[in-house]
Design goal:
Transferase(Phosphotransferase), domain 1; five-stranded antiparallel β-sheet; alpha+beta
């Protein structure tokens, strides 16, 4: 019974920090661990994904069995983040930082396999043990008919609310309900990553200019990738986040990536490689590599479309001269085109964000930034060309012509907006690519298959 004589110590972690102590199981007066006292009506639902399990330990009490030595050195992620800010992080700390990110992603994936979500995780209730394991301290606690709801449910501190839903709904995300939203958990993890890196625990990501001036990030690609996903509702958002973190580990915020066994070496260049590209690379690669696209010829059935002096026939002939259109695979799938144009839209937003940030005064850094922006602009134009070609294919069919026309109008707006940005003095190759895209657009001025207002919008102003 020696264990039962040890003095309880405070365990001020999580949503109910003041209602926790460390000591023996109050029900059996044996063992050792964390004792939590909860409000009436608060219950716990256990999941298999966690390294430790809460168990009932008498009226309104729960017990987490953890031996005394294991509890030594336990810190919350918020405490770990404060340690990173106190001085320049060591190589060991950066490796540990990437391991934490990998473990968070792993826990989340295992929860999803159980039909559960992260629920109400914050920097205060994710515990880091000395062996690298993470424990979601408050995960699974929720109310059932509580007449006097606890403070963490009715008035949670702002710096602890990293989720999208109202807390009354969010608490139940920890339960196995079958359907999950991977996007919601991706958003939470992004905010946790922000807290780890700059010790800012809030729902909003800090703007790009503060990342440079105040927080002195060394990896804009990392932050732009996170920004691109924090508002995403895609069912693939979590998978995309995993891919982004492999490409740019979170330690790259502080220095060249420390690297982990599961991490790929990221680029060490400073300015962003657009996150939108990662969302669509697979589809774009397939379209780009298959070099046969039988551009739809004019009908030869004696109709108006088939006469050699018909403006539409001349348009088709002119369009067929562009290499990008000759190199495409046939498709009449509006959904595929919508996804591609969404990527174009993401790239445009990325370039607009960069345009709003003042360039670095360091000549070396400014040169690197300009090179990255130029490469980004070139990729935008290449993706724009592919999307344009797919839109033309939709216009070729009367069934999908209206849909294709709408997409062409969207592409017109994207191209004209990008041409107005001041971020980059284009090199000769990019200028030529931009000229080709504009020529493709101008060719449609005489395409009578398209609405008159669209064709009129292409007239020189």
């Amino acid at each position: 019974m020696q264990e039962s004589t040890r003095k309880n110590t405070n365990a001020s972690w999580g949503h109910v920090a003041m209602s926790q102590t460390v000591g023996p199981n109050p029900e059996t007066n044996s063992g050792w661990g964390v004792i939590r006292t909860v409000h009436a009506g608060v219950v716990h639902n256990t999941c298999a994904s966690q390294p430790f399990r809460w168990k009932p330990a008498g009226k309104q009490k729960h017990f987490l069995s953890v031996d005394e030595d294991t509890l030594k050195g336990v810190v919350t992620l918020k405490e770990f983040a404060r340690g990173l800010q106190s001085s320049t992080p060591t190589a060991k700390q950066l490796i540990e930082l990437d391991q934490i990110a990998a473990e968070l992603l792993g826990i989340t994936r295992r929860l999803h396999q159980e039909g559960r979500q992260l629920s109400m995780v914050t920097g205060d209730n994710i515990l880091l043990f000395g062996d690298g394991r993470l424990f979601l301290l408050d995960h699974g606690f929720h109310t059932e008919q509580a007449h006097f709801p606890p403070d963490w449910l009715t008035n949670p501190p702002a710096d602890r609310v990293l989720w999208d839903r109202p807390v009354v709904e969010q608490q139940h995300n920890a339960l196995s309900q079958g359907q999950i939203s991977s996007a919601e958990d991706a958003h939470i993890l992004i905010r946790v990553f922000q807290g780890l890196l700059i010790n800012v625990w809030q729902k909003e990501l800090v703007p790009a200019d503060l990342l440079r001036t105040t927080y002195r990030t060394k990896s804009f690609p990392l932050w732009f990738n996170l920004q691109s996903l924090v508002e995403s509702t895609s069912p693939d958002a979590f998978t995309q986040l995993e891919s982004h973190i492999q490409q740019h580990p979170i330690s790259s915020h502080f220095s060249k990536p420390a690297g982990t066994p599961s991490s790929k070496p990221p680029s060490t260049r400073i300015w962003p490689i657009l996150a939108g590209m990662f969302l669509l690379l697979a589809g774009l690669g397939a379209a780009w590599q298959q070099r046969v696209w039988p551009f739809a010829p004019p009908p030869t059935n004696g109709s108006h479309r088939g006469r050699s002096d018909n403006p539409d026939s001349l348009v088709l002939k002119k369009l067929g001269e562009f290499p990008v259109l000759q190199a495409m695979t046939p498709t009449t799938d509006p959904k595929k085109l919508s996804e591609l144009i969404k990527g174009v839209d993401e790239q445009e937003k990325q370039l607009e964000q960069i345009d709003a940030v003042s360039p670095s005064k360091d000549p070396g850094i400014a040169k690197q930034e300009q090179d990255e922006i130029g490469a980004l602009r070139k990729r935008f134009l290449e993706q724009w060309e592919i999307s344009f070609g797919l839109a033309i294919q939709l216009v070729d069919s009367e069934v999908t012509r209206e849909e294709g026309s709408k997409h062409l109008a969207s592409l017109r707006d994207h191209l004209l907006k990008i041409r107005k940005l001041t971020t980059h003095q284009s090199d000769t190759e990019t200028q030529q690519k931009e000229k080709e895209c504009l020529e493709l657009l101008q060719t449609l001025r005489f395409d009578t298959r398209l609405p008159m207002d669209f064709r009129d919008s292409l007239l020189p102003h």
